Amino acid sequence: MKSNIKEVKLPEIVWEDARGRVVAFVNGVEIGHVARHDFRPRGASDAFMVFLAHSDGAVGRKFAATDDVGSEDAGKARLQEMAYSALANETPSDLLGAMKVDPPAVRLRSMTRGDGNAIMVVVAERMGLNPALVAEATRQLGGGTVHPMTSAAIEKEASAMNDRLRVDAKRIAQANAYADDLKMLYGFAERKLPSNQDDTIRVNVQELSGVRLDWAVARCEGYSLTSDGISQLVEKDGKLIILGPVTYGQGIPCGYSPSNYWEQGGPITKRHRINVHYCRDLRDRNGLYIHASMDTHSFHGYWRGDHDKPLVAAMRCYVASKFSESIDVPTSLTA
User: What Pfam families does its record include (predicted)?
Assistant: First the structure.
């Protein structure tokens, strides 16, 4: 059965706006939208079917239209899915009411495959799909009458399409997260990151170590913390540096850790004339502690134990000279 659809006035459909939605507009007024990564043939599709209903009497409740087909065969299958999705017979009265459009006087009791393909010709031409797909759909308009899908079948098909899209969206999100990890690992961290978190914890300077101590030194040096939930970085003059003893390749350090690397902490020690030396621990005749002092501050007992590190003592002394006995550090930074 050939369709009597001659011309359909299409709404303007934006497939992805600034908020990642599929949106349909008529004369600049939004009449339907749906989230791009949770696409259900509703929103923009219902808006399109409203126009079909108003102009021809063929009313559809479900209609999915996308142009992200990977091959001609996939395109044919998608066109067929789209055509069948248009075979429902319920008027979307809520959209009609919102548009202040009277329901069509005549409703088709059912639509055929030919009617669906006629709709697809209009959509394919307007969306700039493969001309061969348009020609194939046009050729099928001369085919015989095919019983339309039931509402239950349409719902099942729509559900299957949504399941496929959800899987795709999950894989894309995983790939993006992995790519971000690689950017952090190898120092390609040039994108804008959120400012440091509001949640902080008060820590005594004598207990600072690891990434917390490095962050405190970065603060003293005029850096600010940024974090994207994957890695901590310090930022100064628009440049981002990985915070902590991060390595790449064959263990070559690329992170910012002045409490570990002399090439980073040494210049600070020199610049502020921080003196570091071992002292006898009077409470333990066999024990030693590291004493760090500078012109303005002198503190004892900055680091004890078998893993004594003069740089740790020096950096704690430096932080104490700026922040006194304690400092607020973000809770996201683990000791």
Answer: Phage_P22_NinX (PF10765)
